[in-house]
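[Protein data]
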Amino acid sequence: MDEQGEHGDVFAERRDKLATWRAAGDAYPTEYQPRDEIGPLHGAYESLEAGQDSTDVHRIAGRVMARRGHGKLTFVVLKDFSGEVQLFAQLDVLGQERYAAIEDVDLGDFVGAEGTVMRTRRGELSLRVTSWQLLAKSLRPMPEKFHGLTDVETRYRRRYLDLMVNDDSREVFVKRARIIRAIREFLDGRGFVEVETPVLQPLYGGALARPFVTHHNELERDLYLRIATELYLKRCIIGGIDRVYEMGKDFRNEGVSFKHNPEFTMLETYEAYVDYNHVMTMVEEMSAAAARSVGALQVRFRDHDIDLTPPWPRLTMRKAIEQETGIDIGADDARTVADLQAAIKAKGLEGAVPLAPTWGAQVDELFSACVEPKLVQPVFITEHPLETSPFAKKTPHDPRFVERFEGFIAGMELSNAFSELNDPEDQRERFMQQMQDLADGDETAHRLDEDFLEAMEHGMPPTGGLGMGIDRLVMVLTGAPSIRDVVLFPALRS
């Protein structure tokens, strides 16, 4: 917003005030030390009675959130990250010049103040100011303090305003940090090693998604922002790091929704000598640890009361689809895509379930349309189609399905895991099928990765692998309705 915009007069007035401060000295000092945080003062002086003074001197600093004057008294509400407290400024203590100056501070200014702690006759904990200093001048007006900032476009595009006035929003990101720390502590405690793999990759893989493409001038080649860390982390397993994980940004050039952002935080873990059943137990225990770090195992999310207490139910995709639709995808009369589409039509679901070119993709569409939205409480859906799971081992009882699970809460997928394929020849065959899918027009299909196949040919132990969406987990644990509420600076249309 420029000076000629909605707040042009206010902007000009504040610049005039800044000029006065510059003429009087440094309007933007380098530091304000020593300094006490505001929040702990409330606990330390809880026993201070109304109208009582202490002799304790404190120095505090923060943003001016409110100001009101009563003749020879001015009250200023000062807020830092830990809390807020009232400044009690008196003309006869500060003198005419300094008192007039504090009367002239604006909402949004940063101020440092020194004084003794007191409680007013109305019971308000305050600092009786003996000296104060302007630390930074705010040239633009704050959002209206008492109504808060509710416009979602402004909240997402100018997150600093949202954090400035909405305590609930700021608390979401504090909790996000605690959740991430709890997950790291959980994995570190189990002997996992955290590593970092390339974000710019010569060949993308590890997921079915379209990538973002960039170009490296010096190397004279196109590179891709990673869509997953899987193939690099598996190289670590092959190299002998038996428990490995990475938590970082992935990038997928796909749609935006309440649960999709083009860049997102993904946790991937790989553990040698275990299968996906072991990983299921780890996921529910890790999710419970994350929940405890910010509250309880019972949370409210998208109008549902969710109970994260382990263990979570396990249900095969075949059984889940049959329960909701009456279609048995494992039956002999549903073994081809044509047979399955005929069954969908016979059940009157053709309008609700999009058609797909392959049997596996059609199973996935059927599940997404008819089952996924109804999975409210935490549940693991196991045994997915081989065609949609190019890195998972086949189930021993039916080669059309693989040892894979997805974890769902409130109709949203949070985790995806496999008993990882470690047969290089089987992996090559699946890559070749993916390349055929690519040639047939599937832009999300995997590319052939010869370097990864060469690594596998050196031998890869049995491994359980996991991918978990951290943003979605934070949504559930904080009750945030949209991924944009848990990503500080989400991607938006221009």
